[in-house]
Specification:
The protein is of the alpha/beta class and 231 residues long. It has 7 helices and 6 strands; from the N terminus they run E-E-H-E-H-E-H-E-H-H-E-H-H. A 4-stranded parallel sheet has the order 3-4-5-6, with helices on one face. Helix 2 links the parallel strand 3 and strand 4. Helix 4 packs across helix 5. The protein is globular. It starts with 8 loop residues before the first strand and ends in a 26-residue tail after the last helix. Bound molecules: adenosine-2'-5'-diphosphate (A2P). It holds the Pfam family Aldo_ket_red.
Length: 231
């Protein structure tokens, strides 16, 4: 198979192909074609049938070809991770699983499972998202207005955002905060000059509401929709 950066796509053993992906990019689970979200005559999204193990094998081939330094997954639940980890002939384990993770959605069980398997959790929406109602479940309250995060921030002369980010990195979760604002981008880096006490970490852990901001409900009927399982 042609595994060059120029071909931009990697063929899968099931006859499909995937684009070469980089950090921060993703492909929707859809049928190849012109429409962004192709639908059938009943208005249901037509999915691109994917075999996650075949996809993983193609990603392993990318790594072996030197096209990727490390390979990981995103939004995988425990069952899906186990499917890869138990795949006959597995060559490379996922190094990371990128999932929603922050004080209101702390992912204790998935985090523990990933720890046991040396998989790093990369937390998206670590500040509680932009609360864009087109894709965010805004029934969960704004994270950065949380009184506990703000009170702890006061003690350290830090913002609630910095406390939320510090909490995540202190429990071994990689964070990828987003901001369009240069001052806030700088602020989000200034989290390595203080640390939270064990008691504060426990207080923040107790904020977990176990409610996702990012539910991806438009894909809930996809056979691999990951969020029906407990974790
Ligand atoms: P902005 O781009 O105006 O800074 P997440 O990383 O959880 O997806 O959150 C992104 C949202 O958080 C964006 O709306 C962003 O707005 C806002 N944000 C990013 N950094 C901070 C910060 N330090 N304080 C407050 N809001 C922030």
């Amino acid at each position: 198979m042609s595994l060059t950066a120029e071909s931009h796509r990697v063929p899968l053993s099931d006859g499909n192909s995937i684009p070469l992906l980089g950090l921060g990019t993703y492909a929707d689970p859809q049928k190849p074609g012109e429409a962004i979200y192709p639908r059938d005559e009943n208005g249901k999204i037509i999915y691109h049938e994917t075999n996650l193990c075949a996809t993983w094998e193609a990603m392993e081939a990318c790594k072996d070809a030197g096209l990727a330094k490390s390979i990981g997954v995103s939004n995988f639940n425990r069952r899906q991770l186990e499917m890869i980890l138990n795949k006959p002939g597995l060559k490379h384990k996922p190094v990371s699983n990128q999932v929603e993770c922050h004080p209101y959605f702390t992912q204790p069980k998935l985090l523990e499972f990933c720890r046991q398997h040396d998989i790093v959790i990369v937390g998206y929406s670590p500040l509680g998202t932009s609360r864009d109602e087109t894709w965010v479940n805004v029934s969960s309250p704004p994270l950065l207005e949380d009184p506990v995060l703000n009170a702890i921030g006061k003690k350290y002369n830090k913002t609630a955002a910095q406390v939320a980010l510090r909490f995540s990195i202190q429990r071994g979760v990689v964070v990828i905060p987003k901001s369009f604002n240069p001052q806030r981008i700088r602020e989000n880096f200034q989290i390595f000059d203080f640390s939270l006490t064990e008691k504060e970490m426990k207080e923040i852990e107790a904020l977990n509401k176990n409610v996702r901001y990012v539910e991806l409900l438009m894909w809930r009927d996809h056979p691999e929709y990951p969020f029906n399982d407990e974790y």
